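[job 4471] stage=fold_predict status=RUNNING
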Amino acid sequence: MKFKYLELEFAESAAEFSQCLEHSMQEIAFVGASNAGKSSAINAISNQKKLAKTSKTPGKTKLFNFFKAKLGYIVDFPGYGYSKVSKSQKKEWAKELPQYFSSRKNLAAAILFTDIRNPMRELDVTMYEMLVGYNLPTLIVLTKKDKISIDDAETAEKNISHVFGSCISFSIEESISIELLIKEINELLSS
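[job 4471] inference complete, writing structure tokens
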């Protein structure tokens, strides 16, 4: 049986925590470095090429972007670690992001996207520790799995899960990993 893509639609963007969409459903935060592949993952799991804006220039997501699914919402965060983002923008995020994680009542979990070729860099670890500090269930998704060998992918997955707990490897090129990510998201939204 062919798997079912997530029926995602863009709901709205918010520049600040106070402007975040009010709703009564569960939501999952998508976080990761600017070039980790969050937008590409959103497009892959929804089978829509342009739902989330992807760019050759990392750091395009400058707001909280809400995408509605049947079971709840995915909230796509600005990618961190991109040097061209202004100092004032970085300061704003440093204030808004912890507020979201500590105060958002319907936040069920976070998914942290990190490039499998160089996973869990310093900023990823900082983000992971912040999420854990808020007792937020966090799944690590090792992106761009198709860029390395199967053996290297298995090694990376084993090493990351040993240190950080639950993780999956993912490629927008493989329907099996798209299906696995969809399954994980559905489980997190319905927990």
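[job 4471] summary: The first helix runs from residue 38 to 46.
[job 4471] exit 0
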